Amino acid sequence: MVVNGAPIRFRNRTRIELAARARFLFGKQIMAPDGANTPARRIYFALQTAYIGADEERIAGLTAARGLISEFQEATTSALARDLLAQALAAADADDGYMALKFARRVMRHEEEVLGIAPLPAPRREQPGLSA
Fold it and tell me: Which of 80, 102, 107, 125 is deepest in the core (most CB within 10 A)?
């Protein structure tokens, strides 16, 4: 889990309640840098950085996302992908990064279907007592 840019690792089952607005992602929502290996995944990673990155990373992430989205929209023949990306960018510009990532995930699934590529595997969970 990442909250406000800080990675959190849980050692046991727990219940969390966020008492204030926070930028967070968890589990399969978090993309590692090496997962950003297709155009849609690079957009997702840039939006992720804009959402949960450190303050200095967030501006650069949004700037990168704008450029990547523009390139993707110009290159694709899919009206659905163009529309979803417009909605993702509008959400990111409105500081709703979580919704922007939801739209970007839909574009990633669309890209996977069109290109016939496998979805990203879920992040590896460390087992207690095992070292990585």
Answer: 107
Where exactly are the structural domains of the chain?
39-118
Q: At a CB cut-off of 8 Å and minimum separation 6, what does 38 contact? A: 108, 111, 115, 117
The model's pLDDT over 1-30, given as tens digits with 9 standing for 90+, comes to 566 565 666 666 777 666 656 666 666 777
Q: What is the pLDDT confidence band of residue 123, given thresholds at 50, 70 and 90?
A: low
Q: What percent of the chain has pLDDT over 90?
A: 48
Separation of alpha carbons 84 and 79, rounded Å: 9
What's the rounded Cα separation, in Å, for the pair 56 and 91? 20
Residue 24: strand, helix, or coil: strand
pTM of the model: 0.78
The whole-angstrom separation of Cα 108 and Cα 105 is 5
DSSP assignment of 98-132 equals HHHHHHHHHHHHHHHHHHT-PPPPPPPPPPTT---
Paired residues of 7 in beta bridges: 2
